[in-house]
Amino acid sequence: MPKKENRTQKSAGSAKPAAKAAPKKAAPAAKKTVTAEDKAPKKKAVSAEDKAPKKIALAKAGTMLAPVPAVVVSCGKTGVDANMLTIAWVGTVNSDPPMLSVSVRRERFSHDLIVREKAFVVNLPSRDQVRAVDWVGVKSGRDVDKWAAMKLTQDPADLVASPLIREFPINLECRVVKTVELPSHDMFIAEIVRVHVREDLVDAKGAFHPEWAGLVAYTHGTYFPVARTRLLKQGESVMKPKTAKRILNERKAKRRDARRK
Ligand SMILES: Cc1cc2nc3c(=O)[nH]c(=O)nc-3n(C[C@H](O)[C@H](O)[C@H](O)COP(=O)(O)O)c2cc1C
């Protein structure tokens, strides 16, 4: 008996000796149907939130709007005391009349010239002028004649005292209409009273193509070329597919014709 006792003890986990009766058979477990889904490795459900790129907040908020234009503003009197400085804090602020704003630190030499003339010219550079854009943005007219140093030429404007920069492809004559004092800068809000563009930027039908000028964009300390290749034309996102296809074919035909010429 000692053997049997031992066996029973093991299986029942009890200290009591088992009765003579045969051990009860466990009821057969109900068979579970295994589906293909059960066999497939379990996937973690991915929510739209998981797919979105993760963002981190920068330690310090700053002037991160980008890209912005980098322009050269000419100021003062043509042929007398004209100066120029680089400005990235520039933007269109009204359509009719056309208006823009430039923000200038009060300590800049150019600041008082703009205040005195109540006018300035915004000169849009092409990539050929990018070195001059940078240079006139680090040197002061207090110390150096930037026109001579950069071999740039003053052309008289039609309606304001300040000069156009001849070598720059696009010049906007501006008259100050309002000055807003901000903590670090004075923002000059001005009306664009005349626009000069290089002849070759206007097509045979008289349409102006600033994208042909090789303009410059400025992003957080670096100058970049504005590419001529387009992503989308304004309004294409809501165009009927048939119209979009027709326009695309017209463009292709135009390019083919141009290549043949
Ligand atoms: C890319 C770039 C952007 C600049 N943007 C501005 C600006 O928006 N406002 C400003 O007051 N100064 C700006 N500056 C600095 C002036 O251009 C710079 O201080 C210049 O030397 C002032 O010239 P001035 O003393 O002859 O007026 C910028 C400089 C660079 C290089």
How much strand content do the residues show?
A: 25-35%
Number of strands: 12
What order do the SSEs take from the amino end to the carboxyl end, as H and E?
A: HHHEEEEEHEHHEEEEEEH
CATH level-3 fold name of the domain at 68-225: Pnp Oxidase, Chain A
Distance linking N and C termini: 112 Å
CATH architecture of the domain at 68-225: Roll
* Overall morphology: extended
Class by helix and strand content?
alpha+beta
Work out the radius of gyration: 37 Å
* Number of H/I helices: 7
- Class of the domain at 68-225 in CATH? Mainly Beta
- The residue-averaged pLDDT reads 87
CATH H-level superfamily of the domain at 68-225: Electron Transport, Fmn-binding Protein, Chain A
| Multimeric organization | single chain
Bound small molecules, which ones? flavin mononucleotide
Main β sheet profile? 7 strands, antiparallel
Low-confidence stretches: 1-22
**Widest sheet: strand ordering:** 3-2-6-9-10-5-4
Level of helix content? 10-25%
Structure commentary:
- With 261 residues, the protein is an alpha+beta fold.
- It is 22% helix and 26% strand.
- The chain has a domain at 68-225: Roll (Pnp Oxidase, Chain A), CATH 2.30.110.
- The strands form 3 sheets. It has a 7-stranded antiparallel beta sheet.
- The longest helix has 20 residues, at 241-260.
- Mean pLDDT is 87; it is low at 1-22.
- The structure holds flavin mononucleotide.
